[in-house]
Every structure is written in C-alpha cells, then in structure tokens.
Specification:
The protein contains seven helices and no strands. It has 176 residues and is an all-alpha fold. The protein folds into two domains: 86 residues, Rna Polymerase Sigma Factor, Chain: A, CATH 1.10.1740.10; 68 residues, Arc Repressor Mutant, subunit A (Orthogonal Bundle), CATH 1.10.10. The longest helix has 33 residues. It comes from Nocardioides endophyticus.
Length: 176
C-alpha cells in the first residue's frame, strides 16, 4: 500500500506545484505562499487516497483552507503580541532598573557584554548562580566564579566612573 501511495503522490504532485504556487502568490506574500504550499502538499500526501481523478480543484480547496488557517494564526499572534506589549512592554519601552542610577548604567556599559549580562541575570532577574548556569549553559560553579568576578569588575568600574565624574569623598570631620 505504501508504495502505491508514493507512486500516486509522485505522479500527481508535479502537476499541482506550479498551479498551487501561482494560486497562492496571487493571494498572499511569497514567504506565506511557500509555507502554505508546503502545508498543502503535506495534506495531499496524507490524504493521497482521497485525491479525485482531477486533483487540482481539490488541491485548490486544500490550499485555500491552509491559507485561511495561516491568516488566522497571524491574527492570533498579532493579538497575543499586542496583549503582551500592554502587560509587559518591550525592553525599549520599559526603563531598565539600572536607569535610576546613571553611574551604574555607565559602569555596566563599560563591562564586557558577557559580564554585564551575568550581572543583569543576577540583579534584575534575581536568579541564583545555579539558575544563571542553566540560562548560560555553564556549570553552577563556573556561574558562581564568573558572577563574583563580574561583581568585582563592576565595583572597580563604579569607582572609576564616580572618580571621573568628579565626586568627592566625604569631608565630614575634616578641617579644610
């Protein structure tokens, strides 16, 4: 049975591909058309026993239904994205916790991106070293060591940033 299915599909598919491609190209963008064409051919393969003697009109119906499903999927994704954007705005729209302290922003920017990301995972996302290890696909021990080193680098960078900005130490209890 499997060999006859394959033979039937291989006999019919070449006659369907170009007409279906043109059918879909007139109705949607090229990327969606390609995706829907692939889905349509998959349905044709799965239901090869149901293919009528003249399969093109039937395949047009399958393609039309697949395209409608793809369009519904896009609308669902857009609605979901809009809902998520309202509840949890994109990073660009939401101020980072560090923006409250300009020196911290400058110090983080001066670090290697890997060190800054490690610190963000720890401070902003409040992940443990073991959880950070999972995110970064490293061992928990490596995450702990890197976190310690990154914190030290951040402290040094904050000292440099504060010193460069002309901050003075406390003069309390000192005579001029």
């Amino acid at each position: 049975m499997d060999e006859s299915r394959r033979e039937r599909f291989e006999a019919v598919a070449p006659e369907l591909i170009e007409p279906l491609r043109r059918f879909l190209a007139r109705r949607t963008d090229a990327a969606t058309a390609d995706d829907v064409l692939a889905e349509t051919l998959l349905v044709c393969w799965r239901r090869v026993a149901e293919l009528p003697e003249e399969p093109l009109p039937w395949a047009y119906g399958v393609a039309r239904n697949c395209l409608l499903n793809a369009e519904r999927s896009v609308r669902r994704q857009e609605r979901l994205a809009a809902k998520i954007a309202t509840v949890d705005p994109p990073f660009e729209a939401a101020p980072a916790p560090a923006e409250a302290d300009g020196d911290l922003v400058v110090a983080l920017a001066a670090l290697r991106p890997d060190d800054a990301e490690l610190l963000r995972l720890w401070a902003w996302e409040q992940l443990t070293p073991a959880e950070i290890a999972t995110v970064l696909d490293i061992t928990a021990n490596a995450a702990s060591i890197r976190l310690h080193r990154a914190r030290e680098k951040l402290k040094d960078q904050l000292r440099k940033t504060a010193g460069a900005a002309g901050h003075e130490g406390s003069r309390e209890g000192r005579r001029p």
